[in-house]
Amino acid sequence: MKQRGKEILLTGGTGQLGKEILKFLSKKFNVYAPTREELDLEKTDKIYRYCTKVKPHILILAGAYTDVDRAESEKEKAFKTNFLSTKEFVKYAAEKDRILIFISSDYVFDGKKEIYSEIDLPQPLCFYGKTKYLAEKEIISNLKKYFIIRTSWLYGEGKNNFIFKFVEKVKTEKNIKVVTDRYGSPTYTKDVALALITLIYSKRYGIHHIVNTGKVSRFKFAEEIKNLMKLNVKIIPVRAEEFGGVAKRPFSSALKNIKFSSSFYPLRDWKKALKDFLKEKFL
Q: Considering the domain boundaries, does residue 164 fall inside one?
């Protein structure tokens, strides 16, 4: 039975994380997940008005401009989508005393540490990371009832993730170059969505890192996919500089779930999560 008075507004409902959140939350809540035609995050002057129309009790901001390289040349678009839109949602949440959940990024860090906890100070290298950090600061400065969820190397429903792109590439190539000097915490969107529900009921507001446990390079991640799927492909380790790329990326953006794991439950290891995902989607 759905709870009354607990309407949720979810942006980014068609993205891979948004789809997973919607799947779980719609069982217990009335969820408004507007399409881009219904609520364009670039048209910031429309956002507050839309919120007053649907009157959400909880706002989940999973919609974002996520093309890290293109953000360097489309700064205005990225700034509007990731920061200015967030300001409008924050304004509504502050005035109406609502809960706001913001999906942030591992790219708020500079990668100089091996792995980051919630108390580490962000120092973003790229413009995308800067817009996410600006949004975080806006939320912290104006709200008490908020969750900032930082996650890393997401994969789930849809085609916009490393696993899908790698598997597709294997169909046409037998030698694939993969970066060996970039590290992160590969994370299944299902685990993020379940953790998010736990947080909503807990009211333990603040910044939380939500990732599958562990740290791995892109190369080792690809090797694990290859082995689990028994793919006939040779993976060639290369340095990130060989791929170029406009935006500066952190050497390591791996995250630790210190707050969430100590308060609720330990999130599963990235290898176990990957095995389950591949079994569900490919095997």
A: no
What is the span of the domain harbouring residue 110? 8-159+187-212+253-269
Q: Is residue 217 part of a domain?
A: no
For residue 18, tell me if it sits in a domain: yes
Cα 16 to its chain centre, rounded Å, is 9
Q: How far apart are CA 238 and CA 219, in angstroms?
A: 8
Cα angle 149, 133, 86 (rounded to 5 degrees) comes to 75
Beta bridge partners of 100: 59, 146
Tokens representing 132 are 């996410």
CATH number of the domain at 83, please. Answer: 3.40.50.720
Give percent of the chain above pLDDT 70: 98
Q: Which three-class secondary structure string do you get for 174-215?
A: CEEEEECCCEECCEEHHHHHHHHHHHHHHCCCEEEECCCECC
The pLDDT of 91-96, averaged and rounded, is 98
pTM here is 0.95
Most distant pair of Cα atoms in the chain: their distance: 57
- 77 Cβ neighbours under 8 A, 6+ residues apart: 42, 65, 71
For the cut 60, the answer to whether the pLDDT of residue 116 exceeds it is: yes
In-domain check, residue 246: no
- Which of the four pLDDT bands, split at 50, 70 and 90, describes residue 243? confident
Distance in angstroms (rounded) separating the CA atoms of residues 63 and 47: 13
Cα separation, 68 vs 183, whole angstroms? 16
pLDDT at 119 over 90: yes
- Number of structural domains found in the chain: 1
Whether pLDDT at 4 is above 70: no
Q: Is the pLDDT of residue 32 over 80?
A: yes
Tokens read off for 238? 């290369």
> Could you give the CA distance from residue 100 to residue 146 in angstroms, rounded to a whole number?
5
Closest of 208, 216, 206, 207 to residue 254, by C-alpha = 216
